[in-house]
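Entry 14. Structure prediction run on the chain below.
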Amino acid sequence: MKAIRVHRFGDPDVMQVEEVPDPQPGTGQVLIEVKAVGVNPVETYIRSGRYAAQPTLPYTPGSDLAGIVEAVGPGVSRFKPGDRVYTWGTVTGAYAAKALCTEDQVHPLPDKLTFSEGAGVGIPCGTAWRALYIRGAAQPGETVLVHGASGAVGLATVQLARAAGLTVIGTAGTEQGADLVKKQGAHYVTAHDDYARILEVTGGRGPDLIVEMLANVNLQEDLKVAAPGCRIVVVGSRGSIEIDPRLTMQKEVSILGLILYYSTPQQTASMHAALYAAMEAGILRPIVRMELPLADAPKAHELVMSPGAFGKIVLVP
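Output returned:
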């Protein structure tokens, strides 16, 4: 089968298509015929060698995919050949024609979603759910600012928050991104740095919850506009920033980091059950920005880190 392989850390061009043996499922494992692969920013950090936990070289990138179960190993009870599934992690890597996963990494994909949409569920929608409900403790009636709402995580956060009864403010960097955020359910859409508008639409109070995608740029200003008791959940940051800690004291604002893989088994099971229900109900539907062939993985890594991104970039084996 064809798979992307990385033999050394570096720029996107270190990813090359190679012919590798088909994996075979062992005990508790599921073999999936890959129909679509979701590209996530974390995969660019790993590929470049800048991530804290690095894989052993050579490796195949990726954790999010959607496809059809081809075979199952001994002890697997939840899936059978022919099932439509999405994954949240793999054993052999997602950027490939086939992928081997443990049974707990695999989840049912509702018929309502295409495989490309399914490839956008794992990390983006899981992150959105954890930001809102595990770290952010979102409550109906509150106001949430999704700071960077036009990316895959941001759009999922908008969809889930709107359906849960929150007032949603989203920010975007382009007119196209702003239109998309509005269509996905945001009550208000502003530019990333239009803090005056954020205060205006909240009657001067500010948001109760901020889901922050670029903390190294926005965190200090977030603290200035936060409502009393606001929780700021840091989903993304690409560097350091100087903040005034007194701003956290004045309104008892909490700054909360998020790492999706810190989810406990119970939290993970609850999260995927909730995501499935949301997909079934038509509440949650990942937005696919573009589909690229597997060989264009280097281009996908460049695009996913470019400013003004909207929706999900998907590789198709």
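The longest strand covers residues 29-38.
Filed with the rest of this week's runs.
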